[in-house]
Design goal:
The chain is an alpha/beta fold. The protein contains eight helices and ten strands. It folds into two domains: 174 residues, Vaccinia Virus protein VP39 (Rossmann fold), CATH 3.40.50; 93 residues, DNA Methylase, Chain A, domain 2, CATH 3.90.120. 26% of the residues lie in helices and 14% in strands. The chain has a seven-stranded mixed β-sheet with strand order 3-2-1-4-5-7-6, with no helix packed on it. Strands 8-9-10 form a three-stranded mixed β-sheet, with no helix packed on it. Strand 4, helix 3 and strand 5 form a beta-alpha-beta unit. Helix 1 packs across helix 8.
Length: 284
């Protein structure tokens, strides 16, 4: 099987394919972030990096059997308001969605049996309907909490025949994945505890993300540790470590250890919950 992964990040797709026991002949990865390329190359040295998604020419690729990707979602998120420049409500980096559409259509011309997966955040009905119109299939919603200790609802558009949704909840909670021997740098200082960035209503932002050991962790995001640490484990008065974030995304421990903590948090927040993708790929 030949795979093309757009917005590949740290190659969660390769972990999922391996976990689903799907043999891959060639894995082409479109990514421009250096830390993502470093992590994927470190773990999967046979990755074929092809750079900027806007410069991909399908004529330079072999027949692709599986197209995967999660296009940038800045203007799709429910946290954002509708921003439109006249392009169906898509703006900024979210316009890269149309590169996914372009390549999906061009690859289908070469291989009508192409399988695909597109992932994105939960969003307003207007955006969801527009994406559905371009992709041609209805999305399914799966919350990562079914597979891990993280509350992470996401939409998946795919033409893969997958098992009945929803799958059975495995029952993981944060207590199941926390480390016991943690470096002091992850604990909150008095200064960090005293200073908290606030939203427009004056509410401390990190209050939204105080995780409790007997519950699910809040959704990881790429900018989760800018300013005051977010992702705080309430009972332990510390933030989540990179390894704990890897576990919340069902990524192998220390998979991202070849880059800085800041880059690890960024990649994990942007990445996929591997077990969800492997579940979908099990229908291949």
């Amino acid at each position: 099987m030949n795979v093309l992964s757009l917005f590949d990040g740290m190659s969660c797709g390769q972990i999922a394919l391996e976990r689903a026991r799907i043999k891959v002949d060639k894995y082409f990865a479109s990514e421009i972030k250096a830390h993502g390329i470093k992590v994927s190359s470190h773990n999967y040295p046979n990755t074929i990096h092809i750079g900027d998604v806007t410069k991909i020419n399908v004529e330079n690729l072999p027949i692709i059997d599986l197209l995967i990707g999660g296009s940038p979602c800045q203007s799709f998120s429910n946290a954002n308001q509708w921003v439109s420049d006249g392009t169906d409500g898509f703006d900024g980096k979210s316009k890269l969605f149309f590169e996914y559409v372009r390549l999906l259509n061009e690859l289908k011309e070469k291989n009508p049996n192409l399988k695909f997966i597109l992932e994105n955040v939960r969003m307003k009905k207007e955006w969801k309907d527009l994406i559905t119109k371009y992709i041609g299939v209805q999305p399914i919603e799966i919350n990562s909490s079914v597979f891990t200790a993280q509350n992470r609802p996401r939409l998946y558009w795919t033409n893969i025949d997958i098992p009945l949704i929803p799958p059975a909840d495995k029952g993981f909670i944060l207590k199941d994945i926390v480390l016991t021997d943690v470096d002091q740098k992850y604990f909150l200082s008095e200064k960090a505890t005293a200073y908290m960035s606030r939203d427009r209503n004056g509410k401390p932002r990190w209050e939204y993300h105080k995780n409790e050991l007997n519950g699910k962790a809040a959704c990881l995001t790429a900018n989760m540790f800018k300013g005051v640490p977010y992702g705080v484990i309430k009972e332990l008065n510390r933030r989540l470590t990179p390894v704990e974030c890897e576990r919340l995304q069902s990524v192998p421990d220390n998979y991202t250890a070849c880059v800085s903590d800041t880059s690890r948090y960024n990649l994990l927040g942007d990445g996929w919950t591997v077990d969800v993708i492997a579940y979908i790929m099990s229908g291949l």
